[in-house]
Write a structure and sequence with these properties.
By secondary structure, the protein is an alpha/beta fold. It has two domains: 120 residues, Glycogen Phosphorylase B (Rossmann fold); 157 residues, Glycogen Phosphorylase B (Rossmann fold). It is 39% helix and 14% strand. The protein is built from twelve helices and 13 strands. It starts with a helix and ends with a helix. This is Heptosyltransferase-2. Pfam families: Glyco_transf_9. InterPro entries: Glyco_trans_9 (IPR002201), LPS_LOS_Heptosyltrfase (IPR051199). Keywords: Glycosyltransferase, Transferase.
Length: 302
């Protein structure tokens, strides 16, 4: 959901580097960032890593902090960066320029994009005319598409001839599991209708995916760039409100996103084409999802 921030910087011709988990480096390799500093979510190690990176890249003095966490502000402060970020409990003193959060409820994409524009103004840089697009966009590379094509070929799948499901979702939302519990019934119904249903969970979620949809074709793990290309090649992506939903949106995949505990107004895929079923406190029924999937697929064929 932060991809438009990178688009903004590039549209304004502002050089930037990225500090993130290691998985993000190949995922974002289609963008024109000038460097990448890997962090792992361990405070002291991340401070050390960022300080080391900055010693080799001394031109970087300012930072935009998208996470609202106290730890991210502490890491950047300890590394000597002058940071802009949203004001929050306990972290305002760690930010050089704390920004007050919007008073109205916003989608996360709007929330971060507004912060990025504020940061450019604070630094005396012109954000230019670039506005938040209606859809996020990931720049796939040749390596991404080659990886996905290799997996399809190995499993005798054809582009736009399979359905990709993502029956898992990590973490809790206010103590509630974010996983719709009927992916097995959905998979079997689609298979009975003649569709091939595949899934490609990361290594840590493979056991959970097998339990959730044991009859689905299990593809080997891929990095996120390859997975994004795979989603683009699917006829339809069906997933929980999770990272997969946003990846599918970023490659303009046809998708159905299932909600039950999170708020679609805040975390839905940032694309006008996503079909969003369910709402906070109310999961969609199995029949609703099956019928929606069949109608969507029939529309694509026609």
């Amino acid at each position: 959901m932060s991809l438009p921030v990178l688009d903004l910087f590039e549209a304004a011709r502002i050089p930037y580097a990225i500090c993130a988990r290691s998985w993000a480096q190949p995922f974002l390799s289609g963008f024109s960032n000038q460097g990448f500093c890997k962090v792992e979510g361990k405070l002291l190690n991340d401070i050390k890593s960022l300080r080391s990176w900055l010693s080799q890249n001394p031109g970087y003095k300012r930072a935009l902090l998208l996470p609202d966490s106290l730890s991210s502000a502490l890491v950047f402060k300890a590394a000597g960066l002058r940071s802009v970020g949203y004001r929050d409990d306990g972290r305002s003193l760690l930010l050089t320029h704390p920004v007050t959060k919007p008073t109205t409820s916003q989608h996360a994409t709007q929330y971060w994009f507004a912060l990025a524009r504020d940061a450019l103004r604070i630094w005396g840089l012109d954000p230019g005319p670039f506005e938040l697009p209606a859809q996020i966009s990931l720049r796939l590379t040749g390596l991404h598409t080659s990886c996905a094509s290799t997996v399809l070929s190995a499993h005798q799948l054809l582009p736009k001839k399979f359905i990709l499901i993502a029956p898992t979702a990590t973490g809790l939302h206010h103590g509630q599991i974010k996983v719709w519990s009927h992916f097995d019934a959905l998979t079997r119904a689609l298979q009975q209708a003649g569709y091939t249903v595949a899934m490609c969970p990361p290594p840590a979620e493979r056991d959970a995916a097998r339990l959730a949809a044991p009859s689905a074709l299990l593809l080997p793990p891929m990095d996120l760039g390859g997975f994004a290309a795979l989603a683009q090649l699917a006829a339809l992506v069906i997933c929980n409100d999770s990272g997969v939903a946003h990846i599918a949106a970023a490659v303009n995949a046809t998708q159905i996103t299932i909600f039950g505990v999170t708020n679609p107004a805040r975390t839905r895929p940032w694309t006008p084409t996503s079909i969003n079923l369910g709402q906070t406190g109310q999961w969609p029924s199995t029949t609703d999802v099956i019928d929606c999937a069949k109608v969507t697929l029939n529309t694509l064929v026609s």
